[in-house]
């Protein structure tokens, strides 16, 4: 998200410096990375912004600096409200951190942006956000479009698989997705390749084994080129989820010229066109077959509408101060 956002900011004339986790630290234990992130976000970033005399600072992933809330330079980008769900019996430390920083940021009436119209629409009914100025900073796909234009792609003649974009989060319902796949007679003649569980292969294969499914492959962590190749060679793209902030897999599939089978949720409905097939648990098999048989080589000329929206909203935010 942030890499694409930087491209949009530069197109609007901004000089952008990005602060991110050094690659040398990414293999550290997760809890150490989390602690370093909190320390960096709460102390290093405010100091850098103050002494570096930056005009603006963007916190692009749900949380933000508490110190930054005392000034008017910061923008918090909210992707979804999953950490804020009251129904959770036990809230994780990471969710508490997100909730705390969001509440303080909005208490001081600082600017907030959302990654989708769905999330922004939900936010209008959230009491603690009502005093803030809202912006829409949707997901963008500059990098993917550039990769596709540069990639010398060779179509695999043995296209006989579907690609599922998944993860180990509760909203991804990987176990439920496997139940749907097994229950559909039309899926038995197809392979399923799963992207997004490369670092949880053992966990994912455990679910597959318990359901006695034989035609599912969990792909390892992929490079950008490998990801594009897997999607381009697939017969169909599948996105299963109960809740999403934006619904990025649908757009990625459409940019790659694929029909997309997607859960019938608000974030996916935003991107619906003639090549996006929405399903519920009862209609999965019917919609899967329809999406598979409706494959059409003419669907590859997809135009991303969100870049214009993002650039207009960036300009609006920059003009505010």
TrEMBL record:
- Keyword Transferase (UniProt): yes
User: What biological-process GO terms show up in the record?
Assistant: lipopolysaccharide biosynthetic process
As one GO molecular function, the record gives: glycosyltransferase activity
Glycosyl transferase family domain: from which residue to which, for each copy? 168-278
What Pfam families does the record point to?
Glycos_transf_1
UniProt keyword annotation of Mitochondrion present: no
- What keywords would UniProt list here? Transferase
Gene3D superfamilies recorded: Glycogen Phosphorylase B
Q: What is this protein called?
A: Glycosyltransferase
